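A quick aside before the break. I want you to see a complete sequence-to-structure record at least once, exactly as it would be stored in a machine-readable document. Don't worry about memorizing anything.
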Amino acid sequence: MYTHFSSTDWVTPFGLMFISAILVAWFFARRNAATTYIDPSHVDLIMPITIIVGITGGTALAWLMPIDQRLAGEAMNHGLRLRLFGMLGTGAIGVFIYCRLAGLSFRRVLDIFALPTLAGIAVHRVGCHFAGCCWGDIVRGGNAGNLETQVHTTSLLDNLVAGIQYPPGSLPFEQHLALGLIEPGALASLPVHPVQLYEVGLLLVLIVLLARVPWRRMPRGTLAVMAVVGYALGRFFIGYLRADGSIALANLTVTQLQCLVLLPSILLLPRFRRSVVS
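That is the input. The structure line, written in tokens, reads:
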């Protein structure tokens, strides 16, 4: 099992899966564009713009959320973390500006990218599984004191899942070590929920269901709204089984709070609301 990047690892499973995720989203977005009579070359321009703007905006947002850097309270601070919602949200701003300059319908372009983006995230999560990032709660109760809810949210699933262990140097291992859940000489972390693969399953189900939606004949933006709502709901509940985010408010992580803000926001935006109900 590979750990996170090091100065000598120029090619890693995570890196390969990240590039694969971009290519998957790119390929299917081009196909969608062609079926909606939009020149696929627009996709070729939008993809790098979205990636650059998303990474830049995601980094800026990470500076504003220092609490999200704490993986084991004061005992472990990971530093800046690029969260998916931050990257996608700021990347969408780049798409909006491009659409205005190119005279394209922003809502239709979002439809074109909706399912390809979900497919790309699914591939990306496989890379997260290999890298040991975005890891899950321990599968059996530990003794992490006041941080117990961060690493073991519920006992209802105890012993129902075998879990997966990560080697020394990985983020789950370092978190468990910092919390005193394992000894310094341990050979692996405690077994944790493979939440990355849980999310892959959620995404595949969501893609299959939304692929049956006749979005080309529906008001523009409808598919994008359905994809965002479906994914945000799934991520909110999966968040209870993730241990890589500190508790920010009312037993919720930063990502879960983002989901709660995103859901009503996307549904109440006047233009999207008119599209969905018309």
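Two observations worth writing down. The beta strands are 247-249, 252-253. The CA atoms of residues 72 and 175 lie 6 Å apart. We'll return to this after the break.
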